[in-house]
């Protein structure tokens, strides 16, 4: 059950796992996610289904180690099992033939963007991808994205790779260069999504964003994942995770992500400490 | 003993953890009766011929009969009598609103003109169920040869567990699909440990597993498997997906940091063990917590807040003490523990600071007007009377609605205007043939015993349906 078949480091604390999950592999659609518990005492965390293969009954998860649970997950090796996986959750991305689709991804957001870009490409769209990273080393999945895009632009804040600047700069120059965009999809750090959304609104480009609020059950039971969209309260796990980016109350969503910052830092420090104590004990033996 | 002597016996006082101690732990509050106490309490029953207690019980437990069994010391017979009609007595003994059901019209209470003097039916029920569990006396019934029929049960709350238990005993194969990683529904994620130890729920599930029920966790029907796939693979389907959709007040400030739905608050604390300081799942440990609502959910949230270290916990309820729907025992326990009750106060706005954290609420003072549709007097605002209270955590506990996941996944299903599934009153069959439903998904947020009762009804009808189709297939 939920056995890890493959583990691949993609750099900068990002790992791709291929995991047995035949039912999920057979049912999932782009844009959907799972909720996992790494061990029987772990927190429930949401992760996008980055890819799936119904024939082998496996799904891929791409995880960035940012805190206790994701670091715990990073310790898993092929043959280990993830204690619980539930899904596919959330509504699938609305994929259709829009014409030209702009896929904007940043950070770990590129992982959830990949299946959507792939779906858009398969639906016959002309896919233009913009990937943003602070610096070259933090860019992931460039080759995968390239394989499903007709055009690709990479931006880095420090100019170490691709064009120097932000993804919003790249969007502006695309549009001012005469490219017509029918639909945009943006997934990345919340601030990047907010500013991209402000820009595409100004440019009149319909935009969807995939939101990543804190979740527990993923079935609409707790309301912890609530976000305000168009003045209404929505539960991202069942009504989303994708929403019309121009309607999202970004500031509220960004603030809510920080609810447990203190506790999360403490948990991560405790975990690191335990790991270190474990290592020291091993070394002294 | 004659009736006059019985009437002179005072109610046995339930031993409990002291309030000052129990607010620092999550262990169960009442310790339960000793055999001596149970005997004394059993002796208070008059064995009335008209049995008002049985009439008050939604599933008609043969109350005087099991009390008689306690009196004669035959606990095994006693628990057998209860289990004829109630599959989960250890749970119901603890959480049923007895004061509105069996104990409401108890002759002993009436004779004393004090419902507080009624025979403590719930505590006696709990006594027998605990005795059975602690002595591993649960009887494994003789299961008839397999019928070859397969039943899918969606949801492992009290409704689903009852259907599973009843149908496995009739020889059908039963699979329970549960969305969460743990069983029990609200019994597992909602009702706190100090009121219903989770061990009880898990043992009930272990018992069903021993009988052959297959539990599939982490499976959301409508997502992991479509309802149609389930219908294709199984001969009948029971939907017991509960009322797990939290209501919000839709007042300003509900997305501030530190505002929880009761479901989220209790799920973090119970299911994810956040009451444990080094749990991986965090919870905000407010110093001053305001809980909005007046039902069991509100009591559970308020008492959980205390156990998470709050110095001050307030329950804000827009009606008065009299209309409060919470079980009396929980209300008394809450008061003993020092929870403040603010009646006739309706929140208007949740207030926050620049960083987005909750700081308090503005509340409207209310008064009671004419009775409304629910028969309770309608709360009306008193113009100009508003005030503010400060709080660093706010828990919204104003009720839940039926979970819309399954209805959304099964378009042919007829629904009522409250989002509940419409069923036949007797058979619990829905508008989709072979699909039955019961519990909170039908009733809206109701009670454990009603969920169980509907599960019972559905199981009976499902059995009839399965055997009927066999016959038509044969014919
Ligand atoms: C629908 C959805 C899909 C997601 N897909 C992926 C994915 O494919 N790959 C991936 O690496 N991450 C993904 N995330 C984010 C991932 O769930 C969080 O990184 C994870 O919960 C952090 O847990 P932790 O214990 O390691 O860190 P914590 O110590 O709990 O948190 C560390 C940091 O992560 C933020 N964080 C905490 N919980 C969440 C959360 N639920 N969502 C976003 N940020 C959070 C905190 O604000 C904090 O700054 C997704 C989130 C959602 C809601
Ligand atoms: C905090 C709280 C305190 C309460 N206190 C009391 C009390 O003291 N006394 C009392 O009598 N009642 C009480 N109640 C009410 C009582 O718990 C419910 O009426 C009862 O649990 C309903 O049972 P159910 O089986 O219908 O649903 P639930 O107990 O809600 O169980 C439904 C189950 O179905 C699962 N599910 C939902 N959708 C799906 C899906 N699509 N696929 C798979 N699984 C799914 C859910 O995860 C859940 O486990 C309380 C409720 C709450 C929330
Ligand atoms: S009404 Fe009270 S006294 Fe009479 S049989 Fe029932 S429990 Fe006993
Ligand atoms: S995660 Fe609980 S309602 Fe969305």
Outline the structure in words:
The complex is a heterodimer of chains A (285) and B (475). Chain A is of the alpha/beta class. Chain A folds into two domains: 2-89, Translation factors (Elongation Factor Tu (Ef-tu), domain 3), CATH 2.40.30.10; 100-257, 3-Layer(aba) Sandwich (Rossmann fold), CATH 3.40.50. Chain A is 32% helix and 30% strand. Chain A has nine helices and 15 strands. In chain A, helix 2 packs parallel to helix 9 and helix 6 runs antiparallel to helix 8. Chain A is globular, with a radius of gyration of 19 Å. Chain A starts with a strand and ends with a helix. By secondary structure, chain B is an alpha/beta fold. Helices cover 36% and strands 17% of the residues of chain B. Chain B has helices at 3-8, 19-22, 35-42, 52-56, 63-71, 75-85, 89-95, 107-111, 121-134, 158-168, 186-189, 198-211, 227-233, 262-269, 296-307, 328-336, 405-409, 440-443, 448-474, and strands spanning 150-154, 173-177, 214-216, 236-239, 245-246, 259-261, 288-292, 312-317, 340-343, 345-352, 358-371, 377-390, 393-396, 400-401, 435-437. A five-stranded parallel β-sheet of chain B has the order 3-2-1-4-15, sandwiched between helices. In chain B, helix 3 packs across helix 5 (63-71) and helix 6 packs across helix 9. The longest helix of chain B has 27 residues, at 448-474. Chains A and B meet through helix 1, strand 6, strand 13, helix 8 and helix 9 of A and strand 5 and helix 14 of B. The structure holds flavin-adenine dinucleotide (FAD) (2 copies), iron/sulfur cluster and FE2/S2 (inorganic) cluster. Residues 95-96, 154-160, 177-180, 185-186, 190-191, 220-222, 240-244, 266, 296-297, 300, 327, 403, 405-406, 439-441, 445-449, 451 of chain B line the site of one flavin-adenine dinucleotide.
